[in-house]
Amino acid sequence: MDNGFGMHCAAHGHGPAASRQERRYRLGAASHDAFLPLETLRDEISPIRVLHDAVTFSTIADMGPILPLLSSTPLEHHAKIDHATQVLLALERQFAQKPALH
Question: What is the pTM of this model?
């Protein structure tokens, strides 16, 4: 039987529920911050080409040549795309080592 104390604390930002919510918020903010450089490159260069290169640079899969109707990403952008990809991979590895949120 609940005496209301736990609900009262959670409503004021205390207790386990508020702690989990704050942790989720921080993880969400970290994910957003990590994805922003790659998404910015997608906006600046090309959504399809940057994503194609990011998958290849991540070594998740070798995407091979880009479709004939598109030109490849200019080489001067490869280092920026690779860097943004490696940041995301590092974040993924960090998340994989942490216990799941309940």
Answer: 0.69
Q: Which of 19, 57, 61, 20 is nearest to 41 (CA)?
A: 57
Structure token digits, residue 73? 């990403």
Contact 16, 7 (CB under 8 A): no
Question: Residue type for 19, please?
Answer: S
Are 24 and 101 contacting, i.e. CB atoms less than 8 angstroms apart?
yes
User: Distance between CA 10 and CA 93 in Å, rounded?
Assistant: 31
Confidence label for 99 from pLDDT (cuts 50, 70 and 90): confident
Whether the Cβ atoms of residue 78 and residue 86 lie closer than 8 Å to each other: no
17 neighbors 25 (Cβ within 8 angstroms): no
